[in-house]
Amino acid sequence: MMRQPALKHTSRRAASQLEQPFYHAQRTMAVIPGMYQLLIRLHRPARIRVGALGRVRFQAGWYVYTGSARNGLEQRISRHLRKGKQKYWHIDYLLAVADGVEAFVLPGSDQSECELHRSLWGGTVPVPGFGSSDCGCRSHLVYFKHRPRIGLLPWEEFVRRPTRSVAWRARCAPARRA
Ligand SMILES: [Zn+2]
User: Fold this and answer.
1) With CB atoms 3.0 to 4.6 Å apart as the test, which of 69, 106, 130, 135 could cross-link to 35 if both were Cys?
2) Cα(12) to centroid of ligand 1, in Å?
3) Where are the domains of the chain?
4) Per-residue pLDDT tens digits for 149-174
5) How much helix, strand and coil, in percent to the nearest 5, is found in the chain?
């Protein structure tokens, strides 16, 4: 006979690994793919190793990392926000020393993360090659001295109403460069 409780056990364990309090009240979300941006704060400069890029110096300030989650925003953002995980992507190294991180999402998959990255303006490229090993971009990380405005849907709102967020997306799509 099939044992049904296995699924319940898995989701309870997954929820317990997450630190965001709002998450505990949330039932399993539908898998919604999309793009996202992480707004990362560093209070002080940091010199850290970033995988194959070697040692990198990060100035104090704000960083925006752009990525895509074709297998679901929930799974990817939850991983980014989890502490103490194995470092795999470049961004994992920066997040490990970050003083703060906020996630923003763009549900849907009709735009590439490279376009979304290029729609950011006013920042500089702090680390060539960061997060862009698989595409032609110079980097998927942008540095800002002051907090930039992110035009996407805050992660907390997405978690609260994941299915409604697809409709919300039309309002939050960033302006594209002419
Ligand atoms: Zn790219």
Assistant:
1) 106
2) 35
3) 31-172
4) 998 999 998 888 776 666 665 555 55
5) 30, 25, 45
What the block records as the tokens of 118 is 């290029």
Q: How many residues does the chain have?
A: 178
Q: State how far Cα 78 lies from the chain centre.
A: 9
Question: What number of CA atoms fall less than 13 Å from residue 86's CA on the CB side?
Answer: 1
CB 155 within 8 A of CB 174: no
Cβ neighbours of residue 132 under 8 Å, at least 6 residues apart? 138, 139, 140
Q: List pLDDT tens digits, range 44-77.
A: 999 999 999 999 999 999 999 999 998 899 999 9
How far is Cα 140 from Cα 70, in angstroms, rounded to an integer?
17
User: 130 CA to middle of ligand 1, Å?
Assistant: 10
Whole-angstrom distance between the N-terminal and C-terminal Cα of the chain? 60
Distance 136 CA to ligand 1 centre (A): 6
For the stretch 71-93, what's the b/e string if a residue is b when 16 or more beta carbons lie within 10 angstroms of its beta carbon? ebbbebbbbbbeeeeeeebbbeb
- The position carrying tokens 């090993």 is 133
| Amino acid at the residue 148 | P
> Which residues keep their CB under 5 angstroms from ion ligand 1?
114, 132, 135, 137
E strands in 129-175: 141-144, 153-154
